[in-house]
Protein 1
Amino acid sequence: MAAKATTTIRQGMHYQPEHAAWFAANQVLFNQVAAFYFEVMQAHEKILDLGDQDALSALEKLTHATKKNLHPVMPLSSIGKHIPAMFRRAAIHAAMGSARAFSSSLKKWRTRKEKYEAKIPRKGEKKKSFSERPPVPPRSWNKSVSLYAGLWKERSGSSILLKIWTGTCWSWVKVRTFGRDLPDGFEMGSPALVRRGKQWWLHTPIEKTFTSPPKIAAQITKASAKICAIDLNLNEQLAVCTVQTVEGTILATRFIGGGREIAGFRKRQLGQIARNRRKTGIIAENEQDNADLWRKIRNADEHIAHLVSARIVQFAAEQGASILVFEHLGNLQPEKGKYSRRGNTKRAFWMKGRIFNFAKYKAWNRGIITSRVNPRNTSRECYRCHGLIVRYAEGQPVSGYTPGTPLCLCPECQMRGNSDRNASLVIGSRLIEPGCQTRRETIYFSSKARRRQRAWHRAGREASDGNASPIYSYPTTALHRVGATLHLLRMLIMEEWKKPLGFNRSGVSQTKNK
């Protein structure tokens, strides 16, 4: 079965100062044409029941004058004359997407209204009227201009010719491009002119077709299959990734650090926002306060989420893993404290969600599927015997459970090691452990995660010996701030840790004590 991986290449453009006004005029005309065709589809609703190609033909017959159709019903010439055919068709497709979305929302609203009005009120109760407001058509249009074939030519690695509306005429404009090159093996789609702030960018969608990877149930039956389990954290180690086979052999572990650096940066910005608010005591209505500081926080979180997710997928691909396994974290609550502390924790939770979402589509582009398992007690269990562990820090008593500390000990099987690494191994074992009644959630790029997911693990198994796994050190990657930008400066260091010969898939020795 064939599958598709899509992504967008964003390239900046060097152009003359007057060209910015031309790009803006070109976008204004594009949105005027799109709004015109939206009104046409509202006046002829049956067009939406047709396929895209048939709807395109019907709309052009209604609006475009030709030798065989000299007097269209709703002529496009009222908006502008001599509009290129590909420009017109790009606007039609943009309007068709908005019209179908509006029509679908309106039908759903009418269904909800009919269902509500059909309800019979309880005895003695007065039935309330349906208060939900209906959806409304777009009040304004701000779509980016799609450049179909014929609106661009002579594209190279550093330049492209664009056909745009200057406000008075159609003209070819040559611009310089910079940024990421188009990768090999992908099919290029129609580029688009996108405005970001005061700068214009060229966005090009690319698509690759490949054989769809097998489902998890089929993959874990093969002894050669490998999975990469990821434990996302709020401390220094933002992510701990462990690759293991379905038989339980641990192949490699990677620690992705920098949590303290991004948390400190975020907390400083939130503290400054709180102090600025305290000075004025007034927040303007419909206006974002401290916009520059909020933008710094958003950009830093998104930057780190992209870096961490890329390193996760890169590590999994290097080790030949075909499945990524995460925890299904959905009900995290920020801890109490000052505004900067609560806001910092809340945004740290959001960044964990971003890391998962970014890793999901990046993994799919490499043919790796993503799954999530129940997060219950993943940090409290031993990956070898599934007993409760003792979690502590160096120099502290080896007793109890202190959240966030780096070391762990299992009193039952004497397993010692890093607590985050142990959690990642528990996450992986919940996917591949035999005999578990595990309900897994496989996540493909085009699907949404189910809200309810359950996984049960085997508990109560004890080790047959008292051997402990070796204690090891783990170098990490530090995040350093240069100005207002966060960078991962040092490459991540992968550490190999293989299970000793004679251990079963849970890490418990199968040899008898002599």
Note: Confidence is low (pLDDT under 50) at residues 434-442, 444-514.
Protein 2
Amino acid sequence: MTMHVEGSEGGNIAQRHSVSEADRHTKYEKVRAAFENAEPVYIDGPESTADGRLSEAGGQGAQTIDSKTIEGKPLAGRGARPMQPESHGVCDQRQDRDKILVNPIIPLGHKDGAYSFISASGELRTMKAEALEAGRGVRALFSGVSQEAEAWCQKKFSTGSGDWSPKDVGQWIIKSCNASGMFDRSSADIRSIGVWRDSQESAVAHCGDKVVDPDGHASPLAEHRGKHIMKGAAPIAAPAEQPATPVEMADLLERLKTGWGWKRACDADIFFGWVTAAFLGGFPEWRAHLYVHGTRGSGKSKLMELAAKLLGDLAGCVVNDATEAGLRQSRNDQARPVLIDEFEPDENARNGSRQDGMLALFRRMSGGQGGRISRGGADHSSVSFRALGAAYVTSINHIYLEPQDRSRFVMLELGNLPDVRSPAQTAAALCNVETCAKDLATRAFRRMLSQSRRWDSTHAMIAAEARRYGADARQADTAATILTGRDLGLFDEVLSGPRLCEIGPILQEMLVDASEADVASEGAEALDFLLNSELHLDHGIRRSVANLLDSVITDTPIVEVGDPESALARHGVYVLKQRNSIAIRLGKTTPSARLFKDTKWRNGAHVSALLKVDGAQKPSSGVRLPRASQQRVIVIPFECLPFADSHIVE
């Protein structure tokens, strides 16, 4: 026999959800009796809200029956264990039947006659009004998903003949989505596989069909309720019940140190720190990327395979041939690391552009909630993409990284593999490390998830130490991300002063590397491009800007160039000897702007770049130029030119 505890009908909200003392006692006793007889209990009465929760009673002193308690005593609910009666009369094999039915559909909203919702299987679905009104495709949303989902349909929308009505369910979806308001997928916070930061600033691992919190508690995705929209995906391996120990993680680090030919003593620690931080996907507010390069046979690919084994399903497969569009679409709404082997520089312009596109994607993956990319769709509507996480790429010769990219990457170089007695012994040693990483995968994942509670405080301490060493904010954040991952991987205790001192040498090495990479600023790079640009002069003669400037500044003639000063002026470049400076005209359509037309400084962007040169100025008013009228210019001192130091007028 199935017991139904019916709620009162009619009256105002408080009256509908309130019961007398006698009614409360009667209902509780009926529920207890049903549990003791191992029969399923369904709570009618309060209607389910749009997000699937049972609504709470309103009114002063109103008593409710919700999915958690009756009169303060626990009942089985979504994510809760069935209530065990004091008599322990419920058979274990029947506990799955003791559940309170809640909405298996999460309405999200509507837009342009289409209704969006999370289905019983966890998918984000959008259906047109005409399909829902006719019930077309509605039965497929529930069939075979779970007994609870079909029981909900049977209970709420029964036809009276042992079946349920897809049309009625479709009408309910329309009504619920309308009540939820407008839904814009391009701006919604939709989350799929990966590790995310929730509204309580905690890490939560989305494993496709379940979510796992730092305590290791796993709950089905359909039971998750929060500000963010969790959509289902093909399941990945979840964190293990037992985390890896500090001893096991330290053993892995030691194997890494002896297994590869690291250029610096700290490089294995940096690699270990990147991998452990990568376990946390999009949870860190700043994610650092890794670029490993080295000669052929240095073990680059084997090292990446080890990282893939350790990160497991969270990272997925190593990619050998990728494009920005492919990564953007395959990792949409995900917060997980990406591994790309053979990220080689290529003379082919198409491949170079392809790498630039992926680097731009990595930039967006680094910070905060990840950069959102919007593209036009086939139906003239916009399609939004978002990805978070850390990237790891390898190549023999690393490609040149722009300053904005270099500040997000940690660079490691591999030398030859350590000398051993035979190639077979080398291969066996590397395979042993790989096996160790594979065995640790889900337990290392569990460890980093549980340690994530101290990520923010540890990162803040290390970043502050980096700033004390003279690092800028970006350098400090990148180094702190790597070293925070290392600390959480190796220790259980909160970061202490002595331990902060111990990582000092690693931190200093990272900052020296970052400072050397930052020497060539955006301004110096733009000026170097200008000086090396070749100008097409009369009679097919070509000379660089630097050659012509040197000739004018030093009064040295150039063969076949009668008037170098006029040649420069025709291209918007002037020599101001009285100021010991050169002047470059401003504007998007000036001759000087055309010199930058096929570069990242096109459309007048050269102005802001050249102003980053030390000593460069933009006078507030026009400057009188030789052989020209008064013009708006940038003024760059001779001392910034590599050939003019000895010709400055005192």
Note: The chain has a mean pLDDT of 81.
